[in-house]
Amino acid sequence: MQTFYFTDPGKVRDHNEDNVIILNNQNNEFILAVADGMGGHSCGEVASKITIDTIREEFEKLETIGTKEDAIEFLRNIVKDINDKIFDYADKHPESKGMGTTLVIAIKTDDYILYGNIGDSSGFVLKNNELHKVTKDHTLVNLLVSTGELSPEEAKYHPRKNILMRALGANNPIDIDIFDVDTSVRSLFLCSDGLTNMLTTEQIEKVLNSKLPIEEAVLKLINKANMRGGLDNISIAYLKRESGE
After folding, report:
1. Percent of the chain with pLDDT over 90
2. How far is CA 93 from CA 15, 89, 134, in A?
3. String of b and e for 215-241 (b: at least 16 CB within 10 Å)?
4. Which residues lie below 8 Å from residue 185, measured CB to CB, with a gap of 6+?
5. What tens digit of pLDDT does each residue of 57-86 get?
6. Distance (Å, rounded) from C-alpha 45 to C-alpha 52?
7. Distance CA 150, CA 216 (A)
8. Domains in the chain with CATH codes
9. Quick one: CA torsion of 227, 228, 233, 239, rounded to 10 degrees?
10. Which of 176, 242, 232 is nearest to 33 (CA)?
11. Which candidate, 28, 31, 26, 18, places its Cα nearest to that of 57?
């Protein structure tokens, strides 16, 4: 497996509220996660850091993630734990009230692949050179699309497209949407909306299908997003099977 992750503040924001990680163990089990913090005054950065730090700590406690059912339980428990920690922090630091974060996370083992998400950070897979979005955004406009009140095209340019209906630190109790993914996919690709708001799925797909080394492909995508304005922090976690795997 080849893996690479990177986060960039973009061209407009004066600090980076995203956090990103890729972890693996001796059993060839991988976790990828991107958290896009919100709340201003660096509080979003705190929420996303709590999220990624908790994922790292809990993963490193395990010798193995176990079965698919074990992994689903791991995701549900870790989300509850993260949410509790964010609310506890906000209670102790009144200036951080309202802070929160999205989360998109993937678990890959030899036997299964799971995706989970809260908010509007995105999880994709690359299969047969086509990029497919797995996760569904928890946004107001996505809700309006699902009820037929907005078309997908109208949603792209809606002035309230970034209003979240679900986020860690905003909803209590919290639940994570979990997706069971085809294990034959070539690549796992997670990113914050700082990328997807600047580039289309087709533009991302073209770069991932190029012959670039994995690190150069990720940095090229971030550069392209910045060239188109870089209006938000941009984070990517990318896992790619090597030929023959």
Report:
1. 80
2. 20, 6, 36
3. eebbbebbebbbeeebbbbbbbbbbbe
4. 113, 125, 126, 127
5. 999 999 999 999 999 999 999 999 999 999
6. 11
7. 37
8. 2-135+168-240 (3.60.40.10)
9. -80
10. 176
11. 31
